[in-house]
Design a protein that fits this description.
It contains 18 helices and 21 strands. By secondary structure, the chain is α+β, with helices and mostly antiparallel strands. The strands form five sheets. A five-stranded mixed sheet has the order 1-7-8-10-9, with helices on one face. The termini are far apart. Bound molecules: flavin-adenine dinucleotide (FAD) and FE2/S2 (inorganic) cluster (2 copies).
Length: about 500
């Protein structure tokens, strides 16, 4: 079937659900607990931070089952159309035996208060199912970074995860073919449209259908991963009269590695984009991308949602601006492409007309003489919002002259912004200590940051200048001779703090 249908269809465990009168912003967590009585999934923070509400969402992509841990508290039920949701209630095998992850938690004494345990178990199961996510100890830490244990019992949980990674197949392996078959049967290529007293929901089947929906209803709210929008509902108690989830639109889920640029479509999540981004931006991946929220947040949140949200402290924009990214916008059949920095006009104001949407972003592949670096400064290493993020792209000729400089900061102004005076102090100059000092002076002219709960203006100005020094230590003329690079030292400090 193509055309339009008026219900949302998905599985929870092995149970099929079709919902025709769902409130568009009913969260998956509330629906599971209150409508289905599945209270194993817990509510802690209700804002994507603690992981107590972690569930698994399984989708058929091509012919492959893809398993993702997400925070049920900031997913709307409607976004599950076409998926299978697994909760802690589904983890026991049909013969009643514990899942290998549950057994490992028992064996290693990984459960203390027990409130956070279902969420940990779900993240651990996801870690076993997701290709290549958990390959070493860092992978375990990353996988568990989105689950908080307030009684500080991480060590036995990490031991349980190690044991679980070694364990044999689980009952889902035996069911994989059935799961794939029934998810295949849910694919009908239809656009979903549901209107009711609590609002309207449109799930366009294609980018063309999205373009027409937004032309007809320019005030409709696009929802990509809902990792920003979800909080408007759960914490801001905002009513969104018409939402348009775009996560399932195949033409917006493209990642294209072109010889000169990487293209990332609007529905591509951080987790999906990560490998391709790492190929061209390896250091920002380590320092920034893997620190965007948690696995659960990166599994839902999109690169383009991070841009479209327009936050001055979003981590993606400064990195992508420094890398020279271009943003692709579409309204109806009219498309335009702009430099990413031009999208951010002022606080809460972006260059996006009514009915227009972000179709994708492209990032040029850096040449061999270009170095791109970025550092996120936040109070906590994992799961924290930046106080400041500095991103730098320098093209350095073999004689040590900076041919081109792009410098962008988050957290220093009302929008993510380029530091034009700093760039001028760098470009055309030898990359030496005199130039570094000139750039440090220039950055004070570029920004007049504010004081807020994350950092004072003094701290922001000082750290911004010090990030230039860090850049110099990392890729200046003496970097190779330094006994221990600043980056290595800081990385070690970060690991120590986390561990
Ligand atoms: C616990 C937690 C931790 C987080 N940590 C970080 C972090 O470390 N760093 C960071 O930068 N962010 C962080 N975030 C914020 C968020 O995860 C990111 O901004 C994410 O990339 C948003 O993407 P999304 O797809 O979820 O956007 P959504 O919430 O779906 O949408 C955000 C906004 O963009 C609009 N929008 C989305 N897609 C389009 C489109 N294609 N065209 C036009 N408008 C569109 C929506 O209408 C909405 O206004 C965190 C969030 C949570 C809950
Ligand atoms: S309840 Fe804390 S992440 Fe959902
Ligand atoms: S076991 Fe629940 S907070 Fe530690």
């Amino acid at each position: 079937m193509t055309g339009t249908r008026h219900d949302v269809r998905f599985y929870v465990g092995n149970e099929y659900h079709t919902l025709a009168d769902i409130a568009p912003t009913r969260t998956l967590l509330d629906w599971l607990r209150e409508d289905r009585g599945l209270t194993g999934t817990k509510e802690g923070c209700n804002e994507g931070d603690c992981g107590a509400c972690t569930v698994l969402v399984v989708r058929l992509e091509g012919d492959r089952l893809v398993w993702r841990a997400v925070n049920a508290c900031i997913q709307f039920v409607a976004m599950l159309d076409g998926a299978q949701v697994l909760t802690i209630e589904d983890m026991r095998a049909p013969d009643g035996s514990l899942h290998p992850v549950q057994q490992a938690m028992v064996d290693q004494h990984g459960s203390q208060c027990g409130f956070c345990t279902p969420g940990f178990v779900m993240s651990m199961v996801a870690g076993r199912k997701a290709d290549g996510l958990v390959q070493d100890e860092h992978g375990i830490d990353d996988m568990l970074a989105g689950n908080l244990c307030r009684c500080t019992g991480y060590a036995p949980i990490v031991r349980a995860m190690r044991q679980a990674m070694q364990a044999g197949p689980d009952h889902f392996d035996a069911m994989a073919q059935d799961m794939a078959d029934r998810l295949r049967r849910l694919r009908d290529g239809a656009t979903v449209d549901i209107s009711g007293p609590t609002g309207r929901l449109t799930i366009p089947a294609t980018a063309d259908a999205l373009a027409s929906t937004l032309l007809a209803s320019p005030d409709a709210r696009i929802v990509a991963g809902a990792t920003d929008v979800g909080l408007w509902v759960t914490k801001g108690l905002r009513v969104l009269p018409h939402i348009v989830p775009i996560g399932g639109i195949a033409d917006l889920r493209r990642i294209e590695r072109r010889p000169d640029a990487l293209y990332i479509g609007a529905a591509v999540t951080w987790q999906e984009a990560r490998a391709a981004l790492t190929e061209i931006l390896p250091q920002p991946d380590d320092e920034v991308i893997r620190r965007i929220g948690s696995v659960q947040v990166r599994n839902a949140g999109t690169v383009c949602g991070n841009i479209a949200n327009g936050s001055p402290i979003g981590d993606g924009p400064p990195v992508l601006i420094a890398a020279g990214a271009r943003l692709h916008l579409r309204r109806g059949d009219v498309r335009r492409t702009i430099a990413l920095e031009d999208f951010f006009i002022d606080y809460g104001r972006q260059d996006r007309a009514a009915g227009e949407f972000v179709e994708g972003v492209s990032i040029p592949v850096p040449g061999p003489q270009t170095v791109i670096r970025a550092w996120k400064i936040s109070k906590r290493f994992d799961q924290d919002i930046s106080a400041i993020l500095g991103a730098f792209s320098l093209t350095i000729t073999p004689d040590g002259t900076i041919e081109n400089a792009r410098v962008a900061f988050g957290g220093m102004a009302a929008t993510p912004r380029r530091a034009s005076r700093t760039e001028a102090a760098l470009a055309g100059h030898k990359w030496d200590e005199t130039t570094l000092e000139a750039a440090r002076q220039a950055i004070a002219q570029d920004f007049a940051p504010i004081t807020d709960m994350r950092a004072s203006d003094w701290y922001r100005r000082t750290v911004a200048a010090n990030l230039l020094t860090r850049l110099y230590a990392d890729c200046g003329p003496d970097a190779a001779r330094a006994p221990i690079s600043v980056r290595t030292a800081c990385k070690a400090a970060g690991e120590h703090a986390h561990g």
